[in-house]
Amino acid sequence: MIGTLQCVVLDCTDVMELARFYQRVLGGEINRPDPQWAIGDAWATLHDAAGAPVLAFQGVADHRPPVWGAPEQQFHLDVRVADLEAAHDAVLESGASLLDAGEAGRPWRIYADPAGHPFCLVRH
Predict the structure, then answer these.
(1) pLDDT value at position 5?
(2) If 0-12 CB within 10 Å is exposed, 13-18 middle and 19+ buried, where does residue 84 land?
(3) SS3 46
(4) Between 66 and 98, whose confidence is greater?
(5) pLDDT greater than 80 at residue 47
């Protein structure tokens, strides 16, 4: 093993907007004091209470969201949920956009966060 995953960083134009969106989805604490992280106008963090890797948000003025299904789209997050219907309603109310509902009975749906990054809600 070479190392361990420290964080996942998402580029966006508004770091606090995206941090608050993922806080509503995942819980956790935004910009928790931590000597590993320099927090500022162009950087925010979300620490999960369960000790998962940090989700970080980096401000990029000319951020272009990925296009789901396009050849250059390389990354997305999967979020495990107990109730797919309730989670669906909650992420839409929080600012997500539905990208692919799939066929009836499929245990996952694909969304975009407010900055356009794709993520899936996956029923467990």
Answers:
(1) 79
(2) middle
(3) strand
(4) 98
(5) yes
| Short-list 11, 20, 110, 14, CA closest to 65 | 11
**Residue spans of alpha helices (H) in 15-74:** 15-26
In a domain, 34, yes or no: yes
Q: What share of the chain is helix, strand, coil (3-state, %, to 5)?
A: 20, 30, 50
- Number of domains within the chain: 2
**CA-based nearest residue to 13, from 59, 44, 47:** 59
Residue 48 has pLDDT above 90, yes or no: no
Give 74's contacts (C-beta < 8 A, 6+ positions apart).
66
pTM more than 0.85: yes
Give residue 20's domain range: 7-59
- Per-residue pLDDT for 35 more than 80? no
